[in-house]
Specification:
alpha+beta; Umud Fragment, subunit A; 2 domains; 434 Repressor (Amino-terminal Domain); two-stranded antiparallel ribbon; 17% strand
């Protein structure tokens, strides 16, 4: 399925415009157009309207790929429910390898792409706080974890290690 960024870039190229030229026509900078084309963020309603006008299309087409006004409704995504654990229960879940061992489990709805086995926890501390910026996960943020996923250098990972004082399992999230 095409994203807003893909549709935007295709239309811009079809019109023979540079990012800077399209930016001038729609009241933003060329850099902003570049961010939209890379799907790093999306235009607000005023910018979207100007963008659609400059490209000779509709806002519905840019946002959803729908070109006909009578089809310009969007089915809502009901989201996916995934387990939501306390920090301690998340450790048990990972050690015992599955929620079937956990009994009744709270669930939250997420609109992110998730797979079977993903679950959510709330950051209990500031172990992932980076005062100089990104990546940083604030205390209380909900984090979705994917057990068993391979990691690459620079990935943010959750790791279970023995607590140095009690030798009990402890989980930490690090980059």
């Amino acid at each position: 399925m095409e994203s807003l960024g893909i549709r935007l870039k295709k239309l811009r190229k079809d019109k023979g415009l540079t990012q800077v030229e399209l930016g001038k026509l729609s009241g933003v900078t060329g850099v902003t157009i570049g961010y939209w084309e890379k799907d790093l963020n999306e235009p607000g309603s005023k910018a979207l309207s100007k963008l659609a006008q400059a490209l000779g299309t509709t806002e519905s087409y840019l946002l959803y790929g729908v070109s006909s006004p009578e089809l310009s409704f969007v089915q809502s995504n009901p989201g996916t429910k995934i387990p939501y654990f306390s920090w301690g229960d998340a450790i048990s879940f990972l050690i015992l390898e599955g929620e079937k061992t956990m009994g009744n489990v709270d669930r939250i709805t997420t609109f992110f792409d998730v797979v079977e086995g993903d679950f959510a926890v709330s950051m209990p501390d500031d172990t992932m706080h980076n005062p100089s910026g990104s990546p940083s996960i604030p205390v209380g943020a909900t984090v979705i974890l994917r057990p068993g996923e391979s990691y690459k250098n620079g990935s943010i990972v959750a790791v279970i290690v023995p607590d140095p004082l009690t030798n009990e399992p402890s989980m930490t999230i690090k980059n």
